[in-house]
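On to my pick:
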Amino acid sequence: MSKVGIIANPASGKDIRRLVSYASIMDNMEKVNQVRRIILGIDSTGVDEILIMPDSNGLGHCAMEGLKSGEIRAKVRILDMTMTCTEEDSIRAAEIMKELGVGCIVTLGGDGTNRAVAKANSSIPLVPVSTGTNNVFPLMVEPTTAGMAAGIVARKIVDCEDIVRTHKRLIIVKNGLEIDMALIDAVVLDQLFLGSRAVWKLSEIREIVCTRAEPSNMGLTSIGGSLHPIGPEDKHGMHMKLGGGSLRVRAAVLPGLIREVAVKEVRIIEPGEEIEVTYKPSVIALDGEREVTVRASDEVRIRLQTDGPNVVDIDRTLLRAAEQGFFRSNSG
């Protein structure tokens, strides 16, 4: 049986950065609508079963209730799992989907949502649909076509080697132990406590280690992108130290907020290379959210690796399926 999973985060797109910038808000009604379109896109490809993560806002249930009787052929069900209303739900859902043999997972959320899913899954291809704030990893894409691409991958209609790319990630090593990871950036902050998880004050930032740096992206990685662009398929990453020095660069650090940032040092890092966190005590934000505290006695390193999650190229997937005649129907 072919199966596709859907992990939709009801909390994405609602953090404090909407109060300090011009970021848009995506309410739950729109998320329900998007989940429904993802379901319809998946079903159109002939997938047998669609599994949805449960959540406190009932996005999956509401999406299913809005479908007309007999409108879809696939079996659609909500996973039977205990909810914690934290990122652990996304992690656990991804683990269960892997156990059940899901062939592709559609995520509806931001960088943080995809980071949680990637922590539990390094093999199942992802179709990341953006709903968060400063997203780099997920894409602004029509949910219907995202669902279609996921169904095509799950059914193995096209050669996955041609349409799936393995992305980079950052490993956080604290006192000799790998404790966490990031998909896009690890940011060292002049902080002592985690506090509000979202990062928005430039004055707090001391260092940025990132897997990607593109001037067209929104957020802190755009700083590096304005200096030396690095794409998702480039093998290397970047390390920046902010503050002081004569180098200044303009970047879109939040929606509607273009700021001039002082960069003390910038350099390219290679796969396997580790950056020692020397600014202590501090807090490290992973993909935009404060996650790791660093005491003066801690030894913390950030390592670039090329074994991150597998991501589906939606456009290429639909193109290859069309070239193979998948969407044609013969009459008479």
